[in-house]
Write a structure and sequence with these properties.
414 residues, alpha/beta, three-stranded antiparallel beta sheet, 32% helix, binds flavin mononucleotide
Length: 414
């Protein structure tokens, strides 16, 4: 019987354990978690979501308060078109986050950064170009382009000296999306180094509609592998979404995937950036506590725990401090939903917005508990302690469980 450790992910001459810890913003897949994956010979992701906030939290910078100071006069206005990111601040924050993570890297693995296209930041092209360039400058091993089709993202960095040597990959949820990406980028003569195929059971934003349950990762991986074969393309495919045990992972590797990308099981590790109290909520969750909804202003369905404190909160939009989801015209669907509720309840001291959430504020504060579909199984991966809490795991423990286990077994901690 095979196990994950019988396989290796090959990037040119480099051989890696075929385990990737997926990007989880905002700072959920933090440097500590990514560094463990690299130390153990796999691939870890940091995320560049809300990187200025992340830099403030770890490096004593003041990007958020400086930006808020600059736009304070606009806080009560519903027109956010004047709110812009300072590109040099964005560059510095990215360099802090990436540079210090890479300095701390040990072992034979790699560290990638997850860049979501849907973080349009008031000026989609300029800010994304700066995020990608600064990450490459700061020495990131690779970039995973996510949450969006990224049809023009490669072109934004085609002049960068590391454009052809850094590992660049994309996340897709269908062979159709992959075909679109490849056709659009054909003129660059630069294929992606890897393709993450993310199915409907993943955490975070989904590349599916509310009919996600009709889709299945094995089928999509088969379609993507067949598509690559017809096109005579040899690009490693990384399967993601709902891979909960070492045996699940092995099945994808036997099917032809080059690696697996995992996230949910690492949310309850000590290294993971979620506060410990939130990790306990993940452990406690039952299947009924998990939903896919349309609360995210990005327009993509998102999976989360129904008990997330950010659901139904009616806070004033915080775009002057954050503003990561503002489009090129300064719009965000949360602003519209908030203004509608204020107009409907002019005398209310506190309002509730039910259909959208201020994702920047709530993700920053860990108040939207996004999670994979199998979060309800996390309680079976650990021990219950005498005080009724669940024992947190080490990232190494979970990584090795995926790497070495067989027979659908899950190794419990001592
Ligand atoms: C808490 C959490 C946050 C996530 N955030 C992101 C993100 O910011 N960007 C992204 O591309 N994927 C995100 N994902 C998806 C993961 O990177 C990964 O592909 C997927 O969840 C793997 O499935 P699994 O969680 O069932 O193992 C997130 C997943 C979780 C659980």
């Amino acid at each position: 019987m095979k196990r994950v450790d019988d396989f290796r992910l090959h990037f040119g001459k480099q051989e890696l354990v075929p385990i990737v810890i997926g990007g989880m913003g905002v700072d959920i897949s933090n440097a500590e978690l990514a560094l463990e994956a690299a130390r153990l010979g796999g691939i870890g992701h940091i995320s560049d979501a809300m990187v200025q906030t992340v830099s403030d939290r770890h490096f004593d910078t003041r990007f958020v308060s400086d930006k808020l100071k600059l736009y304070k006069h606009n806080v009560a206005s519903s027109d956010k078109s004047s709110v812009q990111f300072c590109l040099t601040a964005l560059e510095e924050a990215t360099r802090n986050h990436v540079g210090r993570t890479m300095e701390a890297k040990r072992g034979d693995g790699m560290i990638f950064i997850n860049c979501m296209e849907k973080l349009t930041m008031g000026a989609p092209r300029d800010t994304l170009r700066m995020r990608l360039t600064a990450a490459l400058d700061a020495g990131i091993d690779g970039i995973t382009l996510s949450a969006g089709l990224h049809l023009g993202s490669f072109a934004l960095i085609e002049d960068h000296p590391r454009f052809r040597t850094a590992k660049l990959g994309i996340i897709v949820s269908s062979s159709r999306a992959l075909g679109m990406f490849l056709r659009k980028n054909a003129r660059l003569n630069r294929l992606p180094d890897f393709i993450v195929v993310e199915g409907p059971l993943a955490g975070g934003h989904l590349g599916f509609g509310l009919d996600w349950a009709k889709y299945d990762l094995h089928t999509i991986v088969t379609e993507v592998l067949a598509y690559l074969k017809t096109e005579h393309l040899d690009i490693p495919v990384i399967a993601a979404g709902g891979i909960f045990t070492g045996s699940d992972a092995t099945a994808f590797l036997e099917q032809g995937a080059a690696a697996v990308q995992l996230a949910t099981r690492f949310t309850v590790t000590r290294e993971c950036g979620l506060p410990d109290k939130v990790k306990q909520e993940y452990f406690k969750a039952s299947e009924d506590d998990i939903e896919v909804n349309t609360l995210s202003p990005t327009g993509y369905p998102m999976r989360m725990l129904k008990g997330s404190p950010g659901i139904g909160a009616g806070i004033r939009p915080n775009c002057e401090a954050y503003g990561y989801l503002l489009d090129a015209k300064g719009n965000c669907s949360y602003i519209d939903a908030y203004n509608r509720e204020v107009a409907l309840h002019p005398d209310a001291k506190k309002i509730s917005v039910k259909d959208k959430t201020c994702l920047c504020t709530h993700m920053r504060n860990f108040d939207i508990w996004t999670c994979g579909q199998y979060t309800w199984r996390l309680k079976d991966t650990t021990q219950r302690l005498p005080d009724d809490t669940y024992q947190l795991l080490s990232a190494e423990h979970v990584f090795h469980d995926y790497q070495f286990s067989i027979d659908q077994k899950i190794m419990l901690p001592d």
